[in-house]
């Protein structure tokens, strides 16, 4: 997966008061999807109950448009700034090996983003500045003794390549740890299937577990 992320703009909601009706509202996104937490129930509850309409399994593997991600000129392109809100997750098979290249963009300014993944530790294969180049950078991956983390600081104007095994069934959020960026929508979720054995299946909550 190639996941671009950064700031952007969404249209003002009809009842939104603090919003520039001409320019829109500041948002954040991953692969141009500004993540919205569901309001009716949690992602995990929707998964357990097989409830349709709470989320979709169509989080994209690549950004919708390829461009010079780290160029400051991107902030002058209104089309690149526009992002859409959604509750999209990436579905993963149990024990699937997942590689994600996290590409920082310079839309509305470049800054460091500490990205945190719940549910897993991942290997940091490589980090760099500029745009990720698969042909050049994959050859320099550290496959011998990479650092194992659950949070990686993706540099301003740069990228990080991570890899993990999806061996923990459930719903797991990946998000920016800057406090303002999560409500802006800088997040996505992985939905990991149950495994083939009883100890690889996510059990339901106890019947007396307090409900939200």
Automatic annotation (TrEMBL):
Gene3D superfamilies: Cupredoxins - blue copper proteins. InterPro entries: Cu-oxidase_C, Cu-oxidase_fam, Cu_oxidase_Cu_BS, Cupredoxin, CuRO_3_LCC. PROSITE patterns: MULTICOPPER_OXIDASE2. Its main location: secreted. This is Plastocyanin-like domain-containing protein. It comes from Panicum virgatum (Blackwell switchgrass). CDD domains: CuRO_3_LCC_plant (cd13897). Residues 58-194 form the Plastocyanin-like domain. One of its GO terms (cellular component) is extracellular region. Pfam families: Cu-oxidase_2. Keywords: Copper, Metal-binding, Repeat, Secreted. Belongs to the multicopper oxidase family. It comes from the Eukaryota. It is found in: Secreted. GO terms for molecular function: copper ion binding; oxidoreductase activity.
């Amino acid at each position: 997966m190639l996941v671009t992320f950064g700031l952007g703009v969404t249209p003002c909601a009809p009842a939104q008061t603090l919003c520039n009706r001409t320019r829109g509202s500041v948002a954040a996104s991953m692969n141009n999807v500004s993540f919205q937490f569901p309001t009716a129930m949690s992602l995990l509850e929707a998964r357990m109950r097989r409830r349709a309409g709470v989320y979709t399994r169509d989080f994209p593997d690549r950004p919708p448009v390829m461009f010079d991600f780290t160029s400051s000129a991107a902030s002058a392109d209104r089309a690149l700034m526009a992002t859409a809100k959604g509750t999209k997750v990436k579905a993963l098979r149990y024990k699937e090996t997942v590689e994600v290249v996290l590409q920082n963009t310079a839309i509305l300014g470049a800054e460091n983003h500490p990205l945190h993944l719940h549910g897993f530790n991942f290997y940091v294969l490589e980090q760099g500045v500029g745009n990720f180049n698969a042909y050049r950078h994959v050859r320099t991956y550290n496959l011998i003794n990479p650092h194992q983390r659950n949070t990686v600081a993706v540099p301003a104007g740069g990228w990080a390549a991570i890899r993990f095994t999806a061996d923990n069934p459930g719903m797991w959020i990946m998000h920016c740890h800057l406090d303002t960026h999560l409500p802006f929508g800088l997040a996505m979720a992985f939905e990991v299937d149950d495994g083939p054995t009883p100890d690889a299946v996510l059990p339901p909550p106890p019947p007396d577990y307090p409900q939200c």
